[in-house]
Amino acid sequence: MALIVRPADTPSLAAQSIGIFTSDVPDPLAPTQDERRRPVTLGADISFQYPIQYNIQTLSSKDVEHGDDPFGLLFVPALQSDACKKAEAAFVPANATRIQNIPRNGDSYALIGFAPWFSPPCMLEYFQSVRKSDVKAVIVYQPGNSTDMPPIMNDASWGLGDGGTWKVDNDFPTYAIMAASGGIIMEELSLYSGNITDVPQSDDLLDIGLEPTDYVRLYATVATDSGTQLPSLWVFLVIVLGILILIILATSGFMHFIQRRRRNDLRRRVINGEVNLEALGVKRLTVPREFLEKLPLYTYSVLPAGSDHEKTVPQPPAQAHNLPSPTIEAETGVKTLPLTRRSSAPIATAPPTDTSPAFSQPTCPICLEDFESNETQVRELPCRHIFHPDCIDTFLISNSSLCPMCKESVLPGGYCPAKITNVMVRRERLIRRMQSRGTTHAASEPASSRSPSSLPRPLGSLGHRIGGAIAGRRVFSAPERRRSQPLDIEMGTSQAGTRSEPSAALPHHQAEASPAGSQIQDGAGCSEPTTQNRREWARERALALLGNNHIPTESDEEDRGPRWKRGIRKIFPGFR
Amino acid sequence: MSTKRIMKEYGECVADTPEGMKINFDENKITKWEVLLDGPDQSVYALPEVLSVSVRQGGHFKLEISFPPEYPFKPPVVSFKTKIYHPNVSNDDKGSMCLGLLRAEEWKPPNKVVAVLRLIQTLLIEPNPDDAIEPSIANDYKENYKEFEKTAKEWVKRYAK
Ligand SMILES: [Zn+2]
Ligand SMILES: [Zn+2]
Predict the structure, then answer these.
(1) Where are chain B's structural domains?
(2) Does residue A395 sit in the same domain as residue A500?
(3) What CATH architecture applies to the domain B3-159?
(4) Which of A9, A22, A318, A386 is least surrounded by CB atoms within 10 angstroms?
(5) Is the ipTM of this complex over 0.90?
(6) Residue A293 — very low, low, confident or very high, per pLDDT cuts 50/70/90?
(7) Region annotation Disordered: residue ranges (chain A) (predicted)?
């Protein structure tokens, strides 16, 4: 994330001060030379020293690194053209220090060029010349007596007629000092260019033990603001941004992690049969065709009381999932249904004393057509409700996985949809929270709408078993007009009824009169939703009031809502 | 299938029409029923006419019940063609009523139109303000019943003659 933006020519590495000193440089080629001697800076009392603390204009800070301030021996670069050489004479004394006056030690002495900026073409020649010498920097001045700040970097007087490409071509920085200082230094450069005996105060220098072969020259150090400057606003912003992005990434990652754990947890509970997504109202499931085909098909037959008509099975029903398959009696070839097969019947469906099959209906509840004895083929769901295959298959494939009559799941216990989404996780959590809050609702909650397989099936199924044992065979008898309305729906109704008088006042005889069971479940909350919020509100309300009877129709909300919200949900799963 | 079922249900409805209701059935357009409904006597939607006792009182409301192609897997759609001041009926040109078993998520194929008709009648007698589609009317009903009654009766006089 450390992203440092530094444009090539920002003044961030501007020179704060320049110091001119005099240095004693041993001659590396002198025969008596002691190899250990290094250049030393001479004292101000015996040599020239000239600190420049202000009025320094940085024209280019190219190739200056932080913590690597330029320094080097000063020299005046050579010019090529005669015209420039001639013009230079007015500003540069004849014996000013040139490159040839600097002792060569395999290029090991750092150099700084020093030149008067008197004409653009000659300046270009200066630059050309210093580029060959590998200098650390170039210090320039516009000749004159001015002690003012030199013009700013973009001033026309610094133009060389090349659109500023000289700054790019130079691989060193360029600093301008004020005219007066430039003149003084140039003057000194002419004094410190010859033998040690020719420089000012040469006797003193020899007295302190300098060798006669030594070179005494001027050198400059440039102090840039590199070390002391605070990070620029840019860098600061970038850092802040980086931290922010890090925080967002960390949060997002964390939420993804949590959400994934919740999804896995929900999947585990679904597979274990602790949770039935649709019965709980989390997700509307449909029945895949392969499960559907496993549901048994029979021919409907009316069995008059005491008659011996068997329910015939024209085509062997496919293995009913999670149910023991019917056994075929060897002699008759007639299938008898094992008695235990009703172990998954809902508790509430039959009182223990009821010996007749609880769910034999004479009419298909979907098309309201009567079944015809020995003719109509019916599909039986695990809850024993029977329908025309055409009717129920359409419903189960496209609408729901719950029996339209009693809401028991048709899917096998551990069935889990391929994808557990975050929305499903959220709904499930919401419902669980509501249930743990509203204990009264939880208490009156119909057992069959919980996961059918996870719950003990005591009396009801036992009764069935006993009943089946007595009858010895399973028949679809034409029922007396009795109420076949499953208990859970009834409870749902009365549950709603406790809250709103209308349903209490509702005449129930209709439901009783029609064996198909027309349940009235009113007071469940509106509405033709006008807005998204309203719909959400109504949904939650319905969830709260109805407990489990409510099933969302919507496809997952993951794909709904405004785009920004969807985006945020992607980054922060679990965000509402 | 839905056609057959609707026909069958119509037959049942004719045989057992809830009191105060009349179904106008168009053979050519069986998926749209027109229902004429008298405001139940116990409700505020009964027209307070002082006619002979034998004559049915009550505002006359026209409803439309339309069956979606997916019927009976999707619920029928109920809309009041006559304006009515009721918390559960939308106060717009649709006049839609959508609660209880009329909601898509609660509708079950075994439910029948006659149950819908009874639900409507019940709701006229006893509105359900907790699941209102018109919150302001619901508020009136709950907090200021007198005002609600007055407005409802006015509307009956104005629209439901
Ligand atoms: Zn059918
Ligand atoms: Zn069932």
Answers:
(1) 3-159
(2) no
(3) Roll (3.10)
(4) A318
(5) no
(6) confident
(7) 435-540
